[in-house]
Each structure stands twice: as structure tokens, then as C-alpha cells.
Amino acid sequence: MAARRALTLVELPAWPIKRLLRLEEALVRHEAGNWCLVTALPPTPAVVVGLGGKPDQLLDAAALRAAPVDVVRRFTGGGTVVVGGGTVVASLVIEKGAVCEPFPRDIMAWTEPVYAAAFGRLGVDGLALRDHDYVVGDRKVGGNAQCIAKDKWIHHTSFLWDYDPKHMTYLTLPAKRPEYRADRGHDAFLSRLGEATYPGYAAPAAGAAALASGLEAALAADFDVVRPGPDAAE
Amino acid sequence: WAESAWPSSTQTKTMLRLTLQRSAPACRAAFARSGGLRCLATHYAESHEYVKVDGETGTVGITDYAANALGDIVFVDLPEVGDEVEKGESFGAVESVKAASDVYAPVSGEVVAVNEALEDTPDLVNSSALEDDWFIKIKISDAGELDGMMGDDAYAEHIKE
Questions:
Q1: In Å, how far is B77's CA from the nearest CA of chain A?
Q2: Cβ count within 10 A of residue A231
Q3: Hey, of A93, A150, A154, A179, which one would you mutate to test binding to chain B, going by the most B CBs within 10 A of its CB?
Q4: Which of A82, A117, B25, B147 is the most buried (most CB within 10 A)?
Q5: Contact at CB, B98 and A149, closer than 8 angstroms
Q6: A55: pLDDT confidence band, cut at 50, 70 and 90?
């Protein structure tokens, strides 16, 4: 029987998104091993654009001029998100060949049941992928993106534990959007995970801790999971 | 409808490519001796990039297998003319289905042309049009790097695994 691979799961403190993205890219391109990172982001909002995103089309310039925030381009694909105090980020950094073929749809076919199982432990039933978004019902609860590099890939997700509707004004209605969204604006399209979990996990920090434990159990199907303290990522 | 008595241009290109691929080692030897003999052959990397060699120039792209597995390509990030690329190292990326996938140079050399059509029409990569889906052209610095790459038959076996 082949030896099981190890995976290190780290619950990070509230790092700013730029620092988190730098760590993720270092783990994908320069560090060995499989990793899962979970963190509740600090309250300061930021806009994060995918590798190929065009800010002049995706962002509302007037809203940004009125209330400026950092706009960060990440190394993964996918769409534009606003992150901040209500966002819980989960990142899976996995060696090629460990669990699936290194192509986008194969990766998501593996991650979907992992997250469904993890969130089931928090009282959220029916989390699924729809048109490549994490949804509960027909409402988006998390945006994900991926990078497939030489030896590893990353699938990271910004889960909407909570959000401030006025931050969504930074984003235009994208021209290319999933079919299930139709023409719904942000408020009719998005949903807050903190309202769907067991009461004890409603706050993002408590939710992140619970999600880390849920992922530890779900990932144990494929890996030997170790959980050092947050210093492991330093 | 009448079945043509003549092979289509695509079939002709395929037959020519396969014939020349079988004579690729002799082509490379002749190229090394003459320094300028034109030799058309396609070589494949395990990471699903191809290089079509025409004299000292290699035309680089990703295979249909990779393009289909990646899904609809929405963005292509390429180097600039004059950049140096190194065999096995990333020279750019393609974005599809929320994923940015690195693409790797199958041979080393200097970038002499970039397919600028991909900036506005990245889905050309999915269209399987052999003339339109290339990424970059390289002036190959070491033809010996082609040794050990796969030909058509070996690549066909590779993607079956």
C-alpha cells in the first residue's frame, strides 16, 4: 500500500491579504509539501483582481475615488472580489499527482466534496459548486481561484462569512457572469455563511477556527494531517 | 456531397508532419552539419507544450489535449520579443476556468515573435487552428535540447496514460 502523503494545516492570524498571497505563492513555487491555510482576514477592505482581470472594466472608478482601498492583483485566475473583515480564506496547496489530475475541473471535482464535508460539520448543508462558484442553494458563498504551477497547484477560496454591502459598490456587474446568476445584483446573488452555520460559529474568527477543524477531518481521507501552530507559516 | 478523391489540406499537413517526424534525428544531424537546413518536425514536452521546428526557429504552443483539459481560455500572458527563455522554465501563463496555468519553454532561446492576436482573442488557443494557436516563436539556442522530447506517437501514448 502506498504511503499516505502528509499535509500541514495552519490556522493563520489575521494577516493582510497581500501578505497572505505572497505566502501562498511561495508555498506553490518554492516550498515542498502539501498545505492548507485558513484565516479570517483583518477588517480593512481590499479589492483583489485575478491574473487576467481588467480593472477599468471590473471596478467602479467613482466608488474607488470616493472611498479608496487597496487594489491587489493576485497570481491566480478567476474574478474580482472585495475582501475584508467578514472574509474567511481557505487555501489548498497540493503537490501534482497527490489527489487528482492537475487541470482546473479535476481539481474542483476533488475540492467540492472536501468543502461540503467540512462545512457539514459547521451546520451548513448542501454546499456545492455551481458554475465553478461555491453556493448554498442558488446563492454564492465563496469565490475561488487556482494556479497550476510546475510541481503543485493552489485552490484558494474567499468565503463570505459576512460582508458590508457598500463594499460591493466597488465592483461593476461583470459582463461575463455565470448563468445561474442571471442579472441579480450583489445583494440578491450573495449569501452570508455566518447566518447558515451553527450559532457558535457566526463570527468570522470562530468560523475560521471551526472550518480549520472541519477541513482537518475532511482532508484526513487523503492525507496524514498535521497541525502545527501559526509560526509554521513564518 | 461527394467524397473528395484528394486528401484535405489538413490530412496533407498531418501526413507531412508524421513523415518528417520519423526522419527527425537525421534532420537534426543535417541541421548541425549545414547550420541552415530547414527541417520541419514537432516535438512534445510532458507538460503538454509543443515546439514545431523550422530551421533555427521553434514555434511554441500548447497541445489540443491541454487546451481541452484546461477549458475555455480567457487570458494568455506572454513574454516580449527579445526575452530569453530557458528549457523547462515558465515563460507565461494561460487562464481558464478560474485557473492560471503556467506554460513552460520546451527549448531554450530568444523570443523572436509573440502571437499578439491572443491578447484580444485568447480563445484561438481552443480553436485547434494549427496556424493561429501558437504562443511564441523562439530562435533555438541548443538543438540538442530537442533530444529526449516526444514525437507524435510517443505523445499520443503519453496522453493515454
A1: 8
A2: 7
A3: A150
A4: A82
A5: no
A6: confident
- Main-chain dihedrals φ then ψ at residue A231, nearest 5 degrees: -60, -20
pLDDT digits (tens, 9 = 90+) for A172-211: 877 777 888 888 888 888 999 999 999 999 999 999 999 9
Q: What 3-state DSSP class applies to A133?
A: strand
Contacts of A77 in chain B (CB under 8 A): 74-75, 95-100
Give the span between the Cα atoms of A44 and A16, in whole angstroms. Answer: 8
Average pLDDT over residues B33-57: 78
CA of B69, closest CA in chain A: separation in Å?
Answer: 6
Report CA-CA distances (Å) from A46 to A159, A166, A203.
15, 13, 20
Assigned C-alpha cell, B18:
508524421
Chain A: nearest CA to B53, how far in angstroms?
24
DSSP letter for each residue of B108-151: -EEEEEE-THHHH-GGGGGTT-TTT---EEEEES-GGGGTT-B-
ipTM associated with this complex: 0.87
- Residues A39-72 as b/e (b if ≥16 CB within 10 A, e otherwise) read bbbbeebbbbbbbbbeeeebbeeebeeeeebebe
